[in-house]
Amino acid sequence: MKTKLPNNVSRKPAVATSLAILLALLAGCNLPSRQTPTPLPTATPPPALNTPTPLPPTLTPAPSSTPQPSPTSTTPAPVDIAFSSGTTAAVVYGTIQPGQVQAYTLSAGQNQPMVLILNSPNNDVYFGVSEPNGNLLLDPAKKWTEWQWLLPKTEAYTIKVYGGKTAQDYTLTAKVAKLVTFASGSDTLTLSGSTPKGYVFSYALACQKDQVMTVSLTAPAGSAWLDIFGLATGTLLSSSSKSVTWTGTLPSTQDYIIEIIPNGQVVNYTLKVTVK
After folding, report:
1. Whether pLDDT at 6 is above 80
2. What per-residue confidence (pLDDT) applies to 76?
3. Considering only the top CATH level, what class is 79-176?
4. Which pairs with CB-CB distance under 8 Å and at least 24 residues apart come from 120-125?
5. According to the model, what pLDDT value does residue 74 have?
6. Fold of 178-275
7. How confident is the model at residue 259 (pLDDT cuts 50, 70, 90)?
8. Residues 6 or more apart from 84 whose CB is under 8 A from it?
């Protein structure tokens, strides 16, 4: 059953009261204003996982200022060639590397003939000859393995042996002949001697062009033979013939070398030379 209000009671004040209560409750809720929205917090990205630490750049070490030792020289010291007493020849043996140089010194007198012979397996080891002042008597650029010369002075000569393409052994034979002359008014010379150490013994004799030379060697059979050549013109009688006598007309005015070649042993001999 509805209660009937009196006619003098109005409904409007009740509505106003209700609105006031509602506004008060809303104010207590502290709602944010729509005109000033609260900004959202900025998201901080998470740290990267397993990020490699960059390595420092590789540094090239500075060159050391410590001086380095110089390479050891491969040039051996010079060797003196000394003739044994009573000999006119010497033989030296050696081993030489490619590009290596081995020097020898040999003392001899003025106008003495010098003969050099160099042997090696490949025949590419060669030599040069010079005076103490550096003057070349044989230029090594020629690459000779045999040489003979009338020496200009009494001094120590330098012989340099040069290596070939490979390391190899070599044999250097040096001969300096003994000078002999005819007695005044004589055309015949008789010499007696021996071959110490089984070495070749050499004589040198100055003769004129077109003279006739006769040489005769007396020694035990098969023990020695002759080698005869002109210092400037070369062979007159080769030792390969193993002859003990020779006669011939001389081709020019020069020194002639007469050698007694022993069969590798000490040989006593007599040598007779006639030049007319």
Report:
1. no
2. 80
3. mainly beta
4. 120/145, 120/164, 120/168, 120/169, 120/170, 120/171, 121/168, 121/169, 122/164, 122/165, 122/166, 122/168, 124/164, 124/165, 125/96, 125/161, 125/162, 125/163, 125/164, 125/168, 125/170
5. 59
6. Jelly Rolls (2.60.120)
7. very high
8. 90, 196, 197, 199
Domain spans in the chain, listed from the N-terminal domain onward: 79-176, 178-275
CA distance 132 to 158: 7
* Fold: same for 79-176 and 178-275: yes
Q: In this structure, which amino acid lies at residue 205?
A: L
- Predicted TM-score (pTM) above 0.85: no
> How many Cβ atoms are within 10 Å of 175's Cβ, its own excluded?
22
- Interval 35-64: pLDDT, tens: 444 444 444 444 444 444 444 444 444 444
Measured in whole angstroms, the distance separating CA 64 from the mean position of its chain's CA atoms is 28
Sheet holding 178-179, edge to edge: 178-179, 201-207, 254-262, 224-230, 234-237
Instruction: Quote the CA–CA distance of 163 and 247 in Å, as a whole number.
Output: 41
Residue-wise pLDDT tens digits, 76-96? 889 999 999 999 999 999 999
